[in-house]
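[agent] plan:
  1. take the single chain provided in the ticket
  2. run structure prediction with default settings
  3. attach structure tokens to the ticket
  4. add a short note for the reviewer (M.T.)
[agent] executing step 1
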Amino acid sequence: MKYAHRLDLTVYSKPEDNENEIVSGLRRFFPYSLADEKIAIERGIAGSREEKKITILRIILEKSSHINKMLSHLCSKIGSEQKDTIFEQIESRLDRRNDFFLRFDKHNLAKNNIFSLEDKGDCYHLRISIASFPKKRENAMEVVRNIFNSSMH
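[agent] step 2 finished; step 3 output follows
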């Protein structure tokens, strides 16, 4: 089943961050080797108000097989309390284009291999472009429920 058209995972690495740790945390989202699957980690640079250079790291998935494996892996890494939070917050995390947003604490994942949901702050940003037909909000919410229920595994 196709759950999403596209998945974007982005993280911002500040000069004081250990970029290797941040990249390692980024790779933990995937149950497969990015290199073997020919999936690139895109890099960009942004300036901040203090004129420090911030590195933007992004992975974009568009193949259903890559997306489904990644989402299944993610579901296995988050606990039932976090899934309950996702279910409670579906409406606020789904935008008008049916993009679903999650954030995960950057340092907790990079240093401790713990996927913990975050509402703000320094985090990995996950945007899932939900595949629903017809493209209605209610249908997209049902797809999100299916992703984070056991039915995907």
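[agent] step 4 note for reviewer: The longest strand covers residues 4-13.
[agent] ticket updated
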